[in-house]
Amino acid sequence: MNFLQALLIGILHGVTAFLPVSSSGHAGLLENLWNIRAPENLFFEVLLHTAVLLAVIVTFWSDIRRILAEFILIIMDVLTNIRIYIENKKNGGEKRYQKIGGTNYRKMTLLLMTAVVPMSILGFLSRNLAEIAFGSFPAIGMGMMISAILLLVTDFIPAGDRIPRNMTYDHAMWMGICQGIAVFPGISRVGISMSISLLCGLNRKASVKFTFLMGIPAAAGALILELGQVSSLSLPGKQLAYYMAGAVAAGAVAFFLIKYMVKYLQRARFRGFAYYSFLLGITAIVCNFLH
Questions:
Q1: Is residue 32 within 8 Å of residue 121, measured between CB atoms?
Q2: Distances (CA, A) of 1 to 14, 31, 242
Q3: What are the residue ranges spanned by the domains of the chain?
Q4: What is the structure's pLDDT at 235?
Q5: Burial of 291 (0-12, 13-18, 19+ CB in 10 A)
Q6: Contact 121, 180 (CB under 8 A)
Q7: DSSP characters for 142-182?
Q8: Burial of 274 (C-beta count, 10 Å sphere; 0-12/13-18/19+)
Q9: Residue 162: strand pairing partners
Q10: What whole-number percentage of the chain has pLDDT above 90?
Q11: In terms of pLDDT, which residue wins out, 224 or 210?
């Protein structure tokens, strides 16, 4: 991969990262068209997601700060309840336990914690398979068509009115599973997460916020996993510099677009993106026979 290719992929990733189309699928298509097939391609993809992650953190920092505070309070309340349970068992008392769920942010924190479990397990177990799929036109095409079908179905579902406090942990579990599945190129992380959350009855604003917040641990976990593999990669310094340039381009584009995209997703219809993803998926499969 040369400098210009890394830069173009980075810019494209920054533009598509907040749309219900697969940014990794677009990157995979370009890399396959340019015959850039190397084990470190997945590492480059993780760098791009990490750069976009920084833009998400800046935009949702006030929410993230409150969620982190609630997370600490949840841990403290759980430890307190364990102590109360031991005391009640020992003394035969009936001391009341601390309420774990309560505020909207406390419930959102618990839902995110629930979603992270299946997301992490699936992401970890599917890493090698995703790396293989990243170099395959048919795999990318099938992923895009799966995203297209979900988006099209979602567009015909009446808008819900739930907020995170009204969500169930089953909903969070399914959203985590979908985030884990989205490790495969062609399946849009934003698209599949928003589709499932809207099908679960969330309103658009809550769906967008939960989708982006859920993407933070997903990107962070993927980065940690990839950093552990860096020593085994044969990555020249020049190539790493190209990757970093692409990541910086992705982060810069994402930083300038995210606020607009968040507002846009709260009112956007999905069928246009569904048709686009389906056509691009068909194109990817055709390219497999022509390339």
A1: no
A2: 18, 8, 8
A3: 3-290
A4: 65
A5: exposed
A6: yes
A7: HHHHHHHHHHHHHHTSPP--B-GGG--HHHHHHHHHHHHHT
A8: buried
A9: 202
A10: 4
A11: 210
Which residue type sits at 239? Q
pTM of the model: 0.79
Q: What percent helix, strand, coil does the chain show, rounded to 5?
A: 80, 0, 20
How do residues 123-155 score in pLDDT, each as one tens digit?
778 777 777 777 778 888 888 888 888 888 888
The DSSP call for residue 187 is S
Q: Which residue has the tokens 């020593």?
A: 231
> Token pair for residue 30?
């370009």
CA distances 114 to 138, 169, 177, 190, 204, Å, are: 33, 7, 10, 18, 21
Return the structure tokens found at 50: 């990490």
- Return all residues near 249 (Cβ < 8 A) that are at least 6 apart: 6, 7, 10, 11, 14
Rounded CA-CA distance 203/62 in Å is 20
**CA dihedral of residues 39, 40, 44, 47 (deg, nearest 10):** 120
Amino acid at 32: N
Of the candidates 168, 217, 215, the one whose C-alpha atom is nearest the C-alpha of residue 191 is 215
CA-CA distance, 203 to 207, in Å (whole number)? Answer: 6
d(CA 59, CA 257): 11
> What is the rounded CA–CA span in Å between residue 241 and residue 102?
47
Rg (the chain; Cα; Å): 21
